[in-house]
Amino acid sequence: MTATPVERREAHGETIVHEFTRQAAGFEDPLRNAAFTAQLGRLVRFMEPELDPEDVVLEVAAGTALVSRAVAGRVRHATALDLTPAMLAEGKRAADASGVTNMTFTRGDATALPYLDRSFTLVVTRFSLHQVDDPDAVVREMARVARPGAAIVIADLVRPEGLAGDPDRIERQRDPSHGTLRTEAEIAAMLAAAGAEVRRADRFEVVRPLDPWLAFTGTSDELSAVIRKELEAELAGGAPTGMRPVLVDGALHFTHSHAFLQATAG
Predict the structure, then answer these.
(1) pTM assigned to the model
(2) How many CB atoms lie within 10 A of CB 53?
(3) Is the pLDDT score of 6 beyond 90?
(4) Is residue 223 included in any domain, yes or no?
(5) pLDDT for 26-38, tens place per residue?
(6) Structural domain includes residue 100
(7) Would you say residue 220 lies in a domain?
(8) Of 93, 99, 128, 152, which sits most exposed with the smallest number of CB within 10 A?
(9) Using CA atoms, how far apart are residues 30 and 92, in angstroms rounded to an integer?
(10) Phi/psi at 242 (nearest 5 deg)?
């Protein structure tokens, strides 16, 4: 029997919780989380024109709430919502340790936010749309709970237009909770369909070392060897994987494309 959309979404949600429960401690380990903190300052600077001392902020699919913790000192209140209790617990411990007192941590589904319409003056999500089964629903919910004129900020990995190869296949091998990379244009279309108007964007690429990326998710030695072999074969002229591998000082790296989009809620 074919699974219904709801059943598929619930099953994928269980996979996300399983994988991110395993990974939660790494998100707050400074020896392991450089990939998540390296571009955080750039995102905060991107958000600066929208930040106001009276803002009520919601971070959707927040993980350990890196973004909302980074801006909490500049707004009235920040709420971090995530599906994985272990991620929220790590974020709450870090917030408490740093003396942040104007934050709330809430377990919830990004596709069905437990808030009334028009509740927040700034809504943000980072690294979530490529993970979830129904990104359109997440964007609709973000727009629904945003007050008219509020900023909606989406920061995510994106698939470059015209990219050869299928990066999602290797991404899923490494992390079964990975969904599908969207293009920047597809994300902008989701925002428009939800009634929000894109105002600004920031695009950039990050070249990442392969070994720490595989180690972060505990990828087995056997599977790591398979992935490495594919990337090395591409460098030697083989089929494109979509991961755009390069050698940096003799070490195998790959390339991620990022996009920040700021839209205004209708």
Answers:
(1) 0.90
(2) 8
(3) no
(4) no
(5) 455 554 556 668 8
(6) yes
(7) no
(8) 99
(9) 16
(10) 85, -5
